[in-house]
Design brief:
The chain is mainly alpha-helical and 195 residues long. Helix content is 79%, strand content 0%.
């Protein structure tokens, strides 16, 4: 397989990668919007939400403890907000008045924020696929910089969301990919000079 065929295969793979990443982006945006809307609905319900949850707890449809049982196929855990406290007088009063509403509404907001972060990361990855697909040579400085920036941002997000270990693994992966792409760029320069 000659060099041009390899580059065409890379571009074709990037085309499909861009399509898949755009679909994933749309899914995460929809999840973020649904969680944000759900949070608004929960906060709007207030005490009615708590009464509904307490009714479902009594009926055995939802639970407040983490357990794995042989009879339960699906377990909805709404958490136990009785141990939660806040320094803010307003939030503490709300926790005492309608705790399930406050905690589950906040969970939806946090979930929405996480989905937005993932969507932005996926969109950055899609932009890398798009750039590689449009370039004549996938080993240009522009592509290498974009890939390194996207992977660096992803590593930083891993560090701040999942912890030090995954951040370090992401940073090492970024460095390895950068070195591989830089080596490919050097080989391309040598091949061009040979011709």
């Amino acid at each position: 397989m000659n060099e041009n065929e390899k580059i065409e295969r890379i571009k074709k793979s990037c085309k499909y990668g861009k399509i898949v990443s755009n679909i994933i982006f749309i899914i995460f945006v929809v999840l973020a919007v649904c969680a944000a809307v759900g949070s608004g609905v929960i906060f709007n319900m207030g005490k009615d939400y708590d009464q509904m949850v307490e009714k479902y707890i009594e009926e055995g449809k939802v639970f407040t403890e983490d357990s794995v049982g042989s009879v339960r196929v699906f377990n909805i855990n709404v958490g136990n907000p009785s141990n939660m406290t806040s320094d803010s007088e307003f939030i503490q009063k709300a926790l005492e008045d309608h705790p399930y509403c406050v905690t589950n509404g906040l969970y939806c907001i946090i979930f929405s924020a996480i989905m937005i972060v993932i969507a932005v990361t996926v969109k950055l990855i899609s932009s890398v696929f798009d750039l590689i697909e449009k370039e004549d040579n996938p080993f240009t400085d522009n592509v290498i910089k974009r890939v390194t920036v996207v992977m660096g941002v992803s590593s930083a997000m891993l560090f701040f969301t999942t912890g030090l270990l995954f951040g370090i693994i992401g940073a090492i992966t970024t460095w390895v990919v950068y070195m591989i792409m830089d080596y490919g760029r050097m080989l391309q320069i040598q091949a061009d000079e040979t011709l």
